Amino acid sequence: MSKVTINSKHKITVRDIAGMKSRGEKIAVLTAYSFQVASLLDSAGVELFIVGDSVGMVEAGYSTTLPVTMDEILYHTRAVARASTHALVVSDMPFGSYQAGLDAARENVVRLVKEGGAEAVKVEGGRRSAAVIRAIAEMDIPVMGHVGLTPQSVHKMGGYRVQGRTRAAHEDLIADARAVEEAGAFSIVLEGIPSDLAGEITENLSIPTIGIGAGPRCDGQVLVVNDMLGLLDGRAPAKFVKKYADLDTVITRAVQKYVKEVKAEKFPKGRFSY
User: Fold this and answer.
1) Which segments of the chain belong to CATH 3.20.20.60?
2) For the chain, N or C: smaller number of CB within 10 Å?
3) Angle between helices 167-183 and 130-137 (to 10 degrees)
4) pTM, whole model, 2 decimals?
5) What are the counts of helices (DSSP H) followed by strands (DSSP E) for the chain?
6) Segment 146-193, tens digit of pLDDT
7) Is residue 191 annotated as a catalytic residue, yes or no?
8) Which of the following is catalytic: 181, 191, 200, 265?
9) pLDDT tens profile 212-225
């Protein structure tokens, strides 16, 4: 069952996100990194933005999310927060911003809220990150968890691999999800896990689950905005990515036409000159 009940002019809060799960209303989530794109996504009805450290891979050209710094996340969070009049803004805690201890985590999360304008933060990891999630939640800052395929653990996992396929891994992920909920998270991202496992976790948690590569039974879905818009820059999209547009082709053709007109001295002429 899907019911659209939230007014598009209403500024969504964590209480609204919780209420959507209780009503069986699916939650539409996208990553966002810039003011202009976030403005368009906001007006189109996206309910939650994740200012993801994925920005390092899709915008900065890094091979993983690991090099992304606090300053980089702060820059993009500020831009997205200024654009959002509707969507809840959740900012990623980048690698190194919380692994160094609780004091570092507290300091960095304050920066994301105070300097960046984030309304919540996201922390990767289950049981191993429970103490961090609890410490942040005790500061009255909403926390989103993230279990399954956690990109900041790419080296330990041996690449971007689906998680939870064995029985032992299945049980580990259930324990991780429960630990995130018990630590005080308001929601949790389930990434790169089998659909049945994601459904089991969703049904057994009171907090909303947001799936990416985790099948249709999650309470909401998220995609990297560049991927769903077809801004892939030669990258092959993951199996779970649906391309809703092909902006690679649109932009390439527009720029080729511009270059051609400049070379042929067709632009700027007439109304395009003072």
Assistant:
1) 14-243
2) C
3) 20
4) 0.95
5) 11, 8
6) 999 999 999 999 999 999 999 999 999 999 999 999 999 999 999 999
7) yes
8) 191
9) 999 999 999 999 99
